[in-house]
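User: quick one
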Amino acid sequence: QSVLTQPPSVSGAPGQRVTISCTGSSSNIGAGYDVHWYQQLPGTAPKLLIYVNTNRPSGVPDRFSGSKSGTSASLAITGLQAEDEADYYCQSYDSSLSGLVFGGGTKLTVL
Amino acid sequence: QVQLQESGPGLVKPSQTLSLTCTVSGGSISSGSYYWSWIRQPAGKGLEWIGRIYTSGSTNYNPSLKSRVSVSVDTSKNQFSLKLSSVTAADTAVYYCARGEGSGWPYYFDYWGQGTLVTVSS
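Assistant: Done. Structure below.
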């Protein structure tokens, strides 16, 4: 049971827009700690997708964007493509647990 | 381009110590300001941060594993290592090493190893 809550699954048709939420509390996101996002394709290591809430590493398409407000953060994917089908994880820090925490992960299915 | 590669036994007996090494190439492990970290993922489950060693040598561990975990660095070999003692079946997972970057908590992981499966079984 992660302190960062993500929906287990989301889906969308090619070309559509989907969002993945990451809900925390006053000891993590709500305390002002940054949120990062990772994409994990089947059978591979996670890949950094968004860092410090809204920033994309070089090479990540601008179809991916991140936002943060209050005790939550969101990852938005526009122009959905078949290759986006993967698991997505948010990550932050929790002061009560005194350590890095990941969300439980969200499986994105492209219909 | 920084690359990380995990190595170590794929099978560990219960109650024994799991030992893994991460070899870093494409850059010196002792330069810059990075958090050399270990993360694990049980089959079909999410990611769990285990711990890290900073470039300065300071360490931090997941409180839930702290009593059993140790992370160390060997700058001469450009490697860092994980030791997890008294393992049980619950420690069976894919173990990743990763480089953490950022100005303090929560740093983010910009480079990852491919992961290595460690099974705890007699």
